[in-house]
Design a protein that fits this description.
single chain; 77% helix; mainly alpha
């Protein structure tokens, strides 16, 4: 994509997640906050839809999930941690970079994840109860979910610049991508590392405690 900015519009550095390149701190922060809450709203809305999915569809998805995750129960926790971290970090990076496709991949990513979580809660909750659901999702989810929303929010901001470029308006696609990569490296990736460690080492302990109570 051709950058349509002039030399006088050179972007400034970013010190926090999602500062809008070339803009003052406040406009950039406001844009990120709006995008973050948009991603959260899409996720929550899709999760609610997932909760009301037909039982047959939810059960089929759970069977597929068990088929995929089943082999992980036989390998060392360290390898599980690495697999989970690679899966989450690659997906988050893809969502950031593919935001250049006018924000559509981040949109589908956050909606699908919300819908899937809703279906998992619907099926598992009916069989195991709400305490198990909280124990299985909350320890790492309290970190991981905001990171999903943040990844999508960064992708939305990049998509906004792509739309401006498509309509031949002043656009900062390159600068926004670089800003998104900094957000990924400084905030998203470290958070995913922490969430993966909690998911592999802490969450199973809490689940066993809940099951034994």
């Amino acid at each position: 994509m051709t950058d349509t900015t002039t030399p006088g519009d050179a972007a400034v550095g970013t010190d926090g997640p999602g500062r809008d390149p070339g803009a003052g701190s406040r406009p950039g922060v406001n844009a990120m906050v709006r995008s973050f809450f948009l991603a959260a709203a899409l996720f929550i809305g899709a999760a609610i839809v997932g909760l009301w999915a037909p039982p047959g569809a939810a059960a089929d998805m759970m069977e597929q999930l068990v088929d995929v995750l089943g082999p992980l129960s036989t390998i060392h926790p360290l390898w599980i941690l690495i697999i989970i971290l690679l899966n989450n970090s690659i997906k988050a990076l893809a969502v950031v970079l593919l935001g250049v496709l006018v924000g559509l991949p981040p949109f589908f990513f956050v909606v699908f994840n919300g819908w899937a979580i809703g279906m998992v809660i619907a099926v598992t909750g009916s069989e195991t109860g709400s305490a198990f659901i909280v124990a299985a999702l909350a320890p790492h989810g309290i970190i991981e979910l905001p990171l999903i929303w943040l990844s999508s929010a960064v992708g939305f901001l990049i998509g906004r610049e792509s739309l401006r470029w498509l309509f031949r308006r002043p656009s900062r696609v390159k600068e926004q991508v670089l800003s998104g990569l900094k957000t990924y490296l400084n905030w998203i990736l470290p958070g995913l590392i922490l969430a993966s460690i909690i998911e592999v080492l802490v969450t199973p302990l809490i689940i066993r405690a809940v099951e034994g109570s």
